[in-house]
Amino acid sequence: MALSYARGLIIQLSRVAAASTEDVNETIKHAQIAHETGVWSKMPAVTRSKVLSKLARILESRIQEIAEIETRQTGRALREMKAQLGRLPDWLDYYAALLRTNHAYVAPTQGKLINYVQRVPLGVVAQITPFNHPLLIAVKKIAPALAAGNCVIVKPSELAPISVLEFAKMAESAGVPPGVLSVLPGFGPTTGKTLVSHPLIRKVDITAGTATGRAIGSIVGANLASYTAELGGKAPIVVFNDADLDSAVNGAAFACFVASGQTCVSGTRLIVQDGIYLTFMAKFLEKVEGIRARMGDPLNPKSTMGTVISMRQLEKIEAMMSRSKGAVLAGGKRLEGKSELDGYDFSKGAFFPPTVVADVGVEDELWQEEVFGPVVVVKNFQTEDEGVRLANNCKYGLGAGIWTQDLSRAHRVSAEMEAGLTWVNTHHRNDPSSPWGGMKESGIGRENGLEAFAAYTQSKSTIVNIASAEETREVDDWFAETSEGKRYG
């Protein structure tokens, strides 16, 4: 059952059946047949490119409709969803273009041989996608997998499956053959586990928490399948004395509170140099109050920030806040009463305000663990080295932000950041051409770009002897009675 927190405490949007073990096995069987027949895997690259381009145009025409579905599923502000989903056709267009420009190569093999190397699809691949960006993350994974010629099975979050199901219908109308893209709604411990455990699955690609990533990784490894995992994050935002103050405040607020803090690169640790700390914090807290004052109905285009995904997540955030010893400078408790923006009743949803906590030690749970909500801890520092140490004092390493007008410092500090993504004077920028993934406990492998396409393929060498038959008889008879000078390897 897909539920909404956008209007009313719980509203049923639609009823979605959870895939059973039999459903999963049958879907994999059909996908394997589709792969073996070559209906997609052996289709000319230019034809696959045309299908992906057509799919991009279909998706483009339905952005407003899908944005409203996403908002009703997740409670995120409509203005966020429209802006985010408007970018999704770019991923399909990028990989469609890549298919027209990607080339095999000839390896410099010794002797009278031609060794050409091609990238061929893996086969049937599985993808596990989360609730926070339901269609964005799904398309980021689906686009390179389809471009590479694989058959794809997606298990979306049980909290937000509708937009992914709609996308599968769009793919079919664009010309993706039956069995090539399937969506299996369901729960992780049942549907998800059955899917990733199947021996015919040749790659698993997930976005999830680190504990889930470890558990799935052990299953995938036992099947000798490929694995990509984008996992947890605890992004530091390091603001230096020379940063443009207003830009840094605006950028930090976006990093911390977009998507109600429910992103893996959310700026959850705000680290500000002492020379501007007081001035920065005064402006930042003013910004935070402005965000809170304009929270309302998530479907209101003027609403700044929506709900968190569920009441269960709201209670988790509250529990983490209750265990912290830090000083709450803003927010900290669920919203109640009526919205100042539009009179919306906050009791009809899982609303938590933008929250700022100071005086938190680096051993505190709020510093070390992912909250997945609009909660940021703040700390000041003196020297550049101290700022870098604080930023890296965490088990996660997905995203990081640096704010400075010193070009040398920007490059120097970025080089020291233990993160797969580092933004300078901006945050959360994402493009289909830009690799996306983490270090340390934030995952393995990369989404986006050439790396994602390569990860959905395997190399295949074809080695052709071009010597004449006479020369081959002379040179390649290893067991000839006179074997001196014969070639081996």
TrEMBL record:
Please provide, alphabetically and separated by semicolons, the GO molecular function terms listed in this UniProt record: oxidoreductase activity, acting on the aldehyde or oxo group of donors, NAD or NADP as acceptor
Where does the record place the Aldehyde dehydrogenase domain?
Answer: 13-461
Question: What's the superkingdom here?
Answer: Eukaryota
What PROSITE patterns does this protein's entry cite? ALDEHYDE_DEHYDR_GLU (PS00687)
Q: Which UniProt keywords apply?
A: Oxidoreductase
Q: Does the keyword Amino-acid biosynthesis apply?
A: no
Question: Cross-referenced PANTHER family, in alphabetical order?
Answer: ALDEHYDE DEHYDROGENASE-RELATED
Q: What is this protein called?
A: Aldehyde dehydrogenase domain-containing protein
Q: Which organism does this record belong to?
A: Schizophyllum commune (strain H4-8 / FGSC 9210)
Organism placement in taxonomy: Eukaryota, Fungi, Dikarya, Basidiomycota, Agaricomycotina
